[in-house]
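so the lab meeting is tmrw and i was supposed to have these ready like two days ago... anyway. pasting both below. for each one the top line is the aa sequence and the line under it is the structure tokens. i havent really looked at them closely yet so no promises
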Amino acid sequence: MAKLISLTLLGMGLALFRNHQSSYQTRLNALREVQPIELPNCNLVKGIETGSEDLEILPNGLAFISSGLKYPGIKSFNPNSPGKILLMDLNEEDPTVLELGITGSKFDLSSFNPHGISTFTDEDNAMYLLVVNHPDAKSTVELFKFQEEEKSLLHLKTIRHKLLPNLNDIVAVGPEHFYATNDHYFLDSYLRSWEVYLGLAWSYVVYYSPSEVRVVAEGFDFANGINISPDGKYVYIAELLAHKIHVYEKHANWTLTPLKSLDFNTLVDNISVDPETGDLWVGCHPNGMKIFFYDSENPPASEVLRIQNILTEEPKVTQVYAENGTVLQGSTVASVYKGKLLIGTVFHKALYCEL
């Protein structure tokens, strides 16, 4: 009888394991291969070899790029060097990148590990750059002031909070006010791996201000990219392993109300919003298995989606670019400026194309 019970429990355990394994592979889109969609006149950006995980383009054509991310379980081509913020002027005929110097006596450059970024320009046209940072595998938000003439960043403040433990992306709504995604619930690496494998969907979004910090949305299977509509009325959140983008209505008290969700056949990463049209441009991972289990002989592909009229009953989704990893590995972000498309990656290069 005892053996029968043991065999029954073993069988139940194996069945449960197979179900979770199947779900895990589905959430990673493990079987998908991309059909290439090329764009005319694409060039790799000189000076970017170790990632361009997030980027933001200002209305004047200056692009800020975070480079050199070291993220647990993800490939890095330069694991022993600190990350950096790059500047690119898209008004130039053949734009190149410049590493921005960072000043400020209390900032530790040696452990700089930038992830998501966002800008905010105040009434006096002072421009602030907020950067998710992972020094020594922790999570902070670094507040910088951009000094355009010196082409440098002045470090003003480091923000830490117990509700900001596993930061991924950020969207600024003031110099020290932002929404941010936590892509995991647990801090411990072992528990984090089980959280992802089991699909617990415990990650969440936080609103931060100097006077108030609170969770405003939760229940995500790896909350990733976040951005806001040009009129400031709606917040967009990418749920990586559920293959969804959620639309939330933003209220005057900074709370969020879910409005709608869109489903995709790809892992959606960072979201850029065209300030003129309101279109969403999304860097995607067609096959997440290739991102989390890197193989140089079978590298992760890249994909860019454009979403038009997202607030209507019939949004238009267009696959703008797709490539199997021979040119660009692991796209995370895409943004447009004057008919040009800039695509960034988690640990690889960056691509600049004509649309």
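ok protien two:
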Amino acid sequence: MRRSSTDETPYRRSPSLDSKPDTPPFTSGFHRFSGEFEYKRPPFAFGFHTTKGPQTSTGRCAPGKKYVVFYLDLSFIFLLELRRCRMAEGCMMALRYGMVFFNLLFWLGGCGILGVGVWLSVTQGNFATLSASLPSLSAANLLIAVGTIIMVIGCLGCVGAVKESRPLLLTFFILLLLIFFLEILSIMLFFIYQDEIDQYAQTDLKKGLQLFGTEGNVGLTNAWMIVQTDFRCCGVTNHTDWFEVYNATRVPDSCCLEYSDNCGLDNPGTWWTAPCYERVKDWLNENLVALWIFALCTALTQILGLVFSMTMFCQAVKVETFYA
């Protein structure tokens, strides 16, 4: 037997705030506007809410007159959660693709630097070796070391981002953080001991002059000739530095204003007299802005790599914990 719509039931849909006691049930969420019914969403709530039914003259609720109201807007909850999940998933996808793209560029750049280093090592020997105490500190060896490190780190970051591998992402983060701290420490030590470093560098370069033109030191000889020709200088602190090397009033032909064979034996008035050490320092000071921009871009890239890798690592940990 069908119950009348006017019968009392223990469960009812909650009326909206705009509804009135004499408003029909099906219009509890509507109000009239220009002769039409306009829908107004009731305020969202979740859970069970109990309201009192009609009270008796004694002030107590009549038996069976409590109404349990269940506010649950399933469509609103579903759309809200779906939007949040889609936004989070979109951010993680953008983060992953960004990690892959930048680390792929780093890996390719490392390959290029490594290739240039190998080419210099094969064709030019120990090219640009100016230090006598550090013969392995050549341009070729430095390029090979830097290229290898960049390749390894870029490969770890790229594969870790694609696979979402926690060990690879954590290894990438630790290596990048270690390099970042070493760079900061090196810059701090350089500015603290700048005078001591200058004195040591000049002394070591003067020792390297003693190996100029000797057998097995083709790289050092070529390096000094290129430096003196390009920077138009002679010697470390003065052109007289070469007098101790030759035990005579003589300089290499690369110190001449106009290069010619045995021009270093001619009149000293035809030689460059500016010290090479100061010329190189002046060149660095002139390009100091570009060097700082390069250093800041490098630091910013490393910081972004640290943030992105740790974010992906934490997300991978959360996902694994959730599905565990």
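from a quick look at the 2nd one: The first strand starts at residue 30 and ends at 33. The first helix runs from residue 74 to 123. will dig more after coffe
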